[in-house]
Write a sequence for this structure.
């Protein structure tokens, strides 16, 4: 099954993390590949303590503000290769490709390649894609799409990201 | 801050669980009170292993299909009292009231009481409310509201809840 969490609202990565916890609680092994992310997030400390969850990051520690650099593309391509391996690896039941939609919209990786990977994935795998601006082609082949709408957000009141809550 | 995760789509409880993991990774203590839920969910096994997360359930093991029973009301009221205690308890930084919106829409607990609890909560607490049909009064006082829209769901293809993915 392919699940997509997209939209502008808060909750996409955390929904995927929650799924990882649930799956690990059921005894499944989980692979999380984070695209476009290379900095420390508080969840990493907690996730590292959970035996059957593997998490890898494929981004630089800063945000991509304007044009992506060569390094961004290299890291994202490495992430996609690792994703392919994880999907092929019998060990993993749940594979989370966090912020892969962002990597796609920045054209760091090829949409056609991602579609091929998803279409040829074994049917018993649960693959979760997160990030705003999920491409229509991904939505078409997905089995579940949750769009998280931002009805209200405190950043509009000037509140910035807080450790333990946003990162 | 008060955060609300509502809407029909999949991802509300998992988003809250992900927040719990993130907060616990930052060293914060987390209280999770689950309303209307009394059966086993896979996440319970994983959450139990994380030291600084406390999880309690205040529901029966079956779903409330028609009219709620006296036991449902008793359990939900107990949950609300525990929530009040957790919010007052200096130990907890994040308090998750999972499916409280459902308890409210079933009238198991009083909306006025919930609003009072939220309004009088210390400002340094992060309180997260989940469940579809969040009352407008809650949305009004919330600092963040994410509405999860169901754009596509595999249950429409006849696929039922699966262990480790839905429960």
């Amino acid at each position: 099954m392919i699940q997509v969490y997209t939209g502008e609202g808060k909750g996409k990565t955390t929904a995927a993390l929650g799924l990882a916890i649930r799956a690990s609680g059921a005894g499944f092994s989980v692979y999380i590949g984070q695209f476009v992310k290379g900095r420390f997030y508080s969840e990493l400390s907690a996730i590292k303590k959970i035996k059957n969850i593997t998490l890898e990051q494929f981004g630089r520690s800063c945000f991509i503000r304007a044009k992506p650099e060569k390094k961004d593309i290299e890291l994202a391509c490495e992430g996609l290769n690792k994703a392919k391996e994880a999907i092929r690896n019998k060990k993993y039941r749940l594979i989370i490709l966090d912020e892969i939609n962002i990597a796609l919209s920045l054209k760091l990786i090829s949409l056609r390649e991602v579609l091929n990977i998803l279409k040829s994935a074994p049917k018993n795998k649960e693959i979760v894609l997160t990030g705003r601006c999920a491409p229509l082609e991904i939505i078409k082949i997905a089995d579940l799409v949750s769009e998280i709408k931002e009805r209200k957000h405190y950043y509009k009141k000037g509140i910035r990201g807080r450790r333990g809550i946003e990162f």
About this structure: The domain at 2-152 of chain B is CATH 3.40.50.300 (Rossmann fold). The helical segments of chain B are 12-25, 42-48, 70-88, 100-105, 111-119, 136-141.
